[in-house]
Amino acid sequence: MKKSVILLLLFFVILNIYAEDLIIFHAGSLTNVLHELSKAFEQEYPKIDVKLVAAGSLVVARKITELHQIADLAFVADYTIIPEFLYDHYANYNVVFSNNSIVLAYTNKSKYCDLINKNNWYEIIFKKGVLFGHSNPDLDPAGYRTLMVMKLAEDFYSKNELFEKFINAKNKFILKKSIDLVAYLEAGELDYAFLYKSVAFQYNLKYLELPDEINLSSDEYKENYKKVSVEVPGKDGNPMKIFGKPINFSFTILKNAQNKKAAIEFVKFMYSDKGRKIFKENGMELFVLVDNPDNLPEELKEIWGF
């Protein structure tokens, strides 16, 4: 019996030593940029096979904490998710790496696309025959951020009951994650969708940039954003209130990662000239903000100057 246990342990040790898969759980809105980054990374590291698993950011967290699925890296579209869900058992640092904004995306086939602007979009989306959509607030930050945008818009445009009208709209589609809305737009099954600016840019969609006062992009208006909040399922399904704030994406290397060395190399490549170029070409600028730099791997401390 003891011999069998020892052999089994040796098997797992050897398996871990020679593990070449790098598993990345990530927000759906990062699908394009991480796919391009992974392909470039694999060209330089041909022995490493990057496995990308896309989901809404809240689902990413629940896969790790509730379903106990194993990943090496977790990328989320709301930087507060990592400390809220993954600290301290699964992670002990959080790297904020890029920002974004909410836009209203559309195509040449969208109804009233030649008329829509910053002063009438909140009327256009409710017009007869128009179909619009956003992602599920319980699963995806782009979804609950859309609700925040509408709450802010109600005050900004002085339109009483705009948010209630939005919530009760019969011409609205709610999909699992924001990236799913792209296919509906491209197929002409939706006229408008609330998306991240980077996603609209990556898929060559037309988009209306909403005022900074409501689009969750600007530190200048962060105090105003904080005036609105939404409730989503938190840990163990208990309601969690999330307040408005500027959009920032983040990642962490998980404490139980099976291939930490490859994860570190991936992050280093991400911040190389090649990696930065890939992000820029996908409408995203890279930067680094770390809450607990002392917990970073030494190699990342070195490249970021901590």
Account of the protein in words:
This protein has 13 helices and 13 strands. The strands form 3 sheets. The chain has a 6-stranded mixed beta sheet with strand order 2-1-3-12-4-13. The chain has a 5-stranded mixed beta sheet with strand order 7-6-8-5-9, sandwiched between helices. The protein has a two-stranded antiparallel sheet with strand order 10-11. The protein folds into 2 domains: 2-99 and 247-304, Periplasmic binding protein-like II (D-Maltodextrin-Binding Protein, domain 2, 3-Layer(aba) Sandwich); 102-236, D-Maltodextrin-Binding Protein, domain 2, CATH 3.40.190. With 306 residues, it is α/β, with parallel strands linked by helices. Helix 2 (31-44) links the parallel strand 1 and strand 2. The protein has helices at 2-17, 31-44, 57-65, 81-86, 121-124, 141-156, 162-167, 178-186, 197-202, 222-225, 260-270, 273-281, 298-304, and strands at residues 21-27, 49-55, 73-76, 95-99, 102-106, 132-135, 172-175, 192-196, 206-209, 229-233, 239-243, 248-253, 289-290.
Key features of this structure:
306 residues; five-stranded mixed β-sheet; globular; D-Maltodextrin-Binding Protein, domain 2; 13 strands
Strand order of the largest sheet: 2-1-3-12-4-13
**Uncertain residue segments:** 11-16
CATH superfamily of the largest domain: Periplasmic binding protein-like II
Overall 3D shape? globular
| Secondary-structure class | alpha/beta
Overall pLDDT metric? 93
Helix proportion: 25-40%
Element-level helix/strand string = HEHEHEHEEHEHHEHEHEHEEEHHEH
- Helix count, per DSSP? 13
Please give the largest β-sheet: 6 strands, mixed
Organism: Thermosipho atlanticus DSM 15807
GO biological process, one term: molybdate ion transport
Family: Belongs to the bacterial solute-binding protein 1 family. WtpA subfamily.
GO molecular function: molybdate ion binding
